[in-house]
Design a protein that fits this description.
Strand order of the largest sheet: 5-4-3-10-9
Strand content: 15-25%
Largest sheet: 5 strands, parallel
Radius of gyration: 20 Å
Helix content: 25-40%
Distance between the termini: 46 Å
Length: about 260
């Protein structure tokens, strides 16, 4: 598979995963190995340097790229503060911006996200902002220095698939940045659909973590992402309103 490049860093896998909702943290390294995911996101509040059993970093192999997120931030100022703490804690330069005020649907605040992206990108962070799908906001995020944009497919943890498909397709067509579909993907077939649309990658957490077998589900998502990417690059045949026979219907039993 062709490589995914984020902020100048190359990755073989186009499947990003998360650390939340696993029944046991011991499942996380097994899932990472089976899924071949090379990037994993985590809330900074789960990094507990004073308790090795609770510290999520102890369950993530050293060759995996950490993508700390600003979960819990209600505005740009709080997101910036969390990002700086994550870097100081040794979590690297990648940061996923999450600014959420709506506690019912957990919809991100695009305006505050743009503000935080501009500040953190200027400080050398590789910023991946989570956003409500919107072309203009996506363009503003690019101007602010985002390394990619991460539109939601449907509300976080809903497993409802890509309900925002039309908007994401517009973003893919018009924004010259990797588009990573985040949130709402509940099945491997939905991950394949995102990749067939031209998404650069997908981020999947709940669907893998809440499976009775996270490692096997992680592998299923890995295969789906690869299949979707291959289909996108090979180019799908055009749809038609009418039937088109795959073999000639004349010249055998009938002359017309």
């Amino acid at each position: 598979m062709d490589k995914l490049i984020l902020g100048g860093v190359e990755f073989k896998s186009r499947l990003l995963t998360g650390t939340g909702k696993f029944s046991s943290k011991d499942e996380i390294p097994k899932m990472l190995k089976a899924s071949e995911s090379q990037i994993i996101t985590m809330a900074l509040r789960r990094v507990n340097l004073n308790n090795s059993d609770e510290n999520i970093l102890n369950y993530i192999p050293k060759d995996i790229t950490l993508l700390p997120n600003t979960s819990g931030a209600r505005n740009a100022e709080e997101a910036i503060k969390i990002a700086r703490i994550a870097r100081a804690a040794g979590c690297g330069d990648f940061i996923k911006i999450e600014v959420i005020n709506d506690m019912k649907y957990l919809m991100p605040d695009n305006a505050e996200t743009i503000k935080a992206t501009k500040v953190l990108a200027s400080e050398g962070f590789i910023v991946l902002p989570y956003m409500t799908p919107d072309l203009i906001a996506g363009q503003r995020l690019k101007e602010a220095g985002a390394a990619a944009v991460m539109p939601l497919g449907s509300p976080i943890g809903s497993n409802r698939g890509i309900e925002t498909k039309a908007m994401i397709e517009i973003m893919i067509e018009n924004i010259d940045l990797p588009i990573i579909v985040d949130a709402g993907i509940g099945k491997p077939s939905q991950a394949a659909e995102a990749m067939e649309m031209g998404a650069a990658a997908v981020l999947v957490n709940t669907a893998i973590a809440c499976s009775p077998n996270p490692a096997e589900m992680g592998e299923a998502f890995s295969l789906a992402v690869k299949a979707g990417r291959m289909a996108y690059k090979a180019r799908m045949a055009e749809e038609s309103r009418y039937a088109n026979a795959s073999s000639p219907l004349t010249g055998f039993l009938h002359n017309n």
